[in-house]
Structure formats: structure tokens, C-alpha cells
Design a protein that fits this description.
single chain, 212 residues, alpha/beta, Rossmann fold, 7-stranded mixed β-sheet, 8 helices, globular, methyltransferase activity, SAM-dependent_MTases_sf, Thiol_S-MT, methyltransferase
Length: 212
């Protein structure tokens, strides 16, 4: 992951998009956080869209968002969250360098598609989890057939430049298991009709565990 980021175009775009999410995506966000407890690290918090969905069994959320404009919006969302949330512009690498206790859970929502080296990031997240801790993920993932062709075309052209380095055709679940996690629950869900020509219409949602 990079150090603190300034991406004014994407920040403006995401601020608008995150306030107009569909009911389907909001439902998936809520489901992704259900049952979490203890200390949680959220990676790439964006505008803090997840914060309102954390259950009261969570005692603390540390949310890292290296894009400074988005982090400012996330700090506003943290002020009204139902659980204590601290927003930082640190990257995961910077947070690790500073030390600190491990977490009971790690949350990744629409972020592993945009990091430069998802395998490296996932290995770092593995080390930040307590044994038996869970990674909760809600991510764009590589499709098949015509969807895969659309994703590859989007990734090779303008999509990453417009949407904060988002790469739609990534085998994220393979990267998760490759980092040492055991996937305990997972499924894929389309949030729009299959005929809609959008490379990010299909999501993977799941839970992966660090070995005890």
C-alpha cells in the first residue's frame, strides 16, 4: 500500500457515490459486519460508510484511510457511529510499524481491488489478527465469461484511473487463502441485473479465519 494519498478527483467522486449506494450494497455491508466483537481494524474506510453498521459487541474500531479528503469525511461519520471509532490516515504498513495490540477482527470493504499488492497486504493483515480472529471481506472479484472480458478491458483502460486504482478482475479469494487464511463462509452475489454492462456488479462476501 502507498503512504498518505491525495487523489482529489476520486475523493470527490467517491463522496458522491458512497451517499447513493443501493439497498443491496448497504445490506451486504451490514451482513459483512454482523457478529463481530472486540477490537476491529477496518482497512480503507473511505467515507466511513460502514461505521453505522457495526454491532454493539464491537468495543473499538481503528479505521485507516490514507486518502486525506476521505479520511476527513470518515471522521465526521465516526462522531455519530454507534461504537467508538478512531480514524487514521496511516497505511497498514505505518500502523504495523507503530506497534500495538492485535485485533479480534479485520474488515476489508471494496479495498483489496485497489491496493497495489493485495497478497502482501493480506499477509500483513494476517499478522495483525489474534489467533482465531476473523477477516471479513466484501470485495469486487474476477468474474467469468463475458463478465471477465469486460473486467479485463476496464482494468486495462480507464477504470483504475477513474476509480482510485480499482482493478475489477482480481482473484481476491485465492489471495486470501494464499495469505494463510481459512475461508469459513463465502458466497457471491450480483447487486445489479446480469445484463447490466458494469464490471463491478458482482461481489464476494465472506469470512476467513487466522489459525488458532
Amino acid at each position: 500500500m502507498q503512504n498518505t494519498i491525495d487523489n482529489p478527483f476520486f475523493a470527490r467522486l467517491w463522496k458522491v457515490m458512497s451517499t447513493h449506494e443501493t439497498d443491496a450494497i448497504r445490506r451486504l455491508r451490514r451482513e459483512n459486519l454482523a457478529g463481530l466483537s472486540g477490537r476491529v481494524l477496518e482497512v480503507g474506510a473511505g467515507t466511513g460508510t460502514n461505521f453505522e453498521f457495526y454491532p454493539d459487541t464491537v468495543t473499538e474500531v481503528v479505521a485507516v484511510e490514507p486518502e486525506r479528503t476521505l479520511a476527513e469525511v470518515a471522521q465526521q461519520a465516526a462522531a455519530t457511529a454507534p461504537v467508538p471509532v478512531t480514524v487514521s490516515t496511516d497505511t497498514v504498513e505505518q500502523y504495523m510499524a507503530a506497534g500495538g495490540e492485535q485485533f479480534d477482527g479485520v474488515v476489508c470493504s471494496l479495498v483489496l481491488c485497489s491496493v497495489d499488492d493485495p497478497e502482501s497486504v493480506l499477509r500483513q493483515l494476517y499478522s495483525l489478527l489474534k489467533p482465531g480472529g476473523e477477516l471479513r471481506y466484501l470485495e469486487h472479484i474476477a468474474g467469468s465469461g463475458a463478465q471477465a472480458g469486460l473486467q479485463k478491458f476496464a482494468d486495462a483502460t480507464i477504470w483504475p484511473r477513474l476509480f482510485g486504482n480499482c482493478h475489477t478482475h482480481r482473484h481476491t479469494e485465492e489471495s486470501i487463502t494464499g495469505a494463510g487464511f481459512t475461508v469459513s463462509r463465502a458466497r457471491r452475489e450480483w447487486t445489479m441485473p446480469r445484463w447490466v454492462p458494469l464490471p463491478v456488479a458482482e461481489f464476494a462476501i465472506g469470512r476467513a479465519v487466522r489459525a488458532a
